[in-house]
Amino acid sequence: MSIRGVRIKIEDLSHRYTSKSPITFDKVNLEAKHGEIIVIIGRSGCGKSTLLHILAGLLKPTDGSVRLDDTLVTSPSPQWVMMFQAPHLFPWMKVSQNVGIGLHFAGWDEPRMRERVDDALSLVDLQDYADNNVQDLSGGQQQRVALARSLVMEPELLLLDEPFSALDAFTRASLQHDVRSIAKRLGFNVVIVTHDIDEAVLMADRALIMAGSPGKIYDELEVNLPDPRERHDPNVQAMRTRLMEAFKQAANEYPSASGKDAGDESSPHSVTQHA
What we know:
Blueprint: E1 8-15, E2 25-32, E3 37-41, H1 48-55, E4 63-68, E5 71-72, E6 80-83, H2 95-99, H3 101-105, H4 110-123, H5 139-151, E7 157-161, H6 169-186, E8 189-194, H7 197-203, E9 206-211, E10 216-222, H8 234-253
Helix pairs in contact: 4-5, 7-8
């Protein structure tokens, strides 16, 4: 598979759902270089999931713009793909059929499609499950199918909205490691929104703290840690402490509204920590 990343440029981005609605976030500016992994962390209500939906072309901004290289994002595209907390698979289909569904609708012939699907399944270590029905898989395996379905289109940008929060700790850690490893190997960009401090440290090249109502990018930290990253590594723990301190400062200075972010699928208003 041949995938390259994009340069992300967000300029003065603002959003409100209706003219009478409160502003979700105001004048957000962000740039990311080719192949960079960005994690946006913040409490519910700060607008981080709404921002991700605009990046995906699923929502339109009220003001400002999102550009991927020179392309203005105005609608969804196979080049920028979003994964959600639930895998949203077709339960009557085999694993390979779920992974190849986008290629099927794009009119690919069977031999070409089979080769691309096999490559995607190998990336997520599911090559031995191609003919299994997805209902026979565990939750973690189903999320890997969803990841392979995203990768099979060779996107330049992968957008993740709390994709691992419903999984057990072991499966979540495995997928966090694998998504970062695959992204670095293939060179595509990743933008993740999460409540999970550990997830940010384990996956990000750069962590952004979003806070307030309307939401703003309050702070950012470069996560300059070698791979593979292990949760109990002293350097990982030190970075976790720095990020938690920055998050607490942002939360105190810019408290979020009590309402839930319209795009968020998880309900806690506090950020997640792991021992």
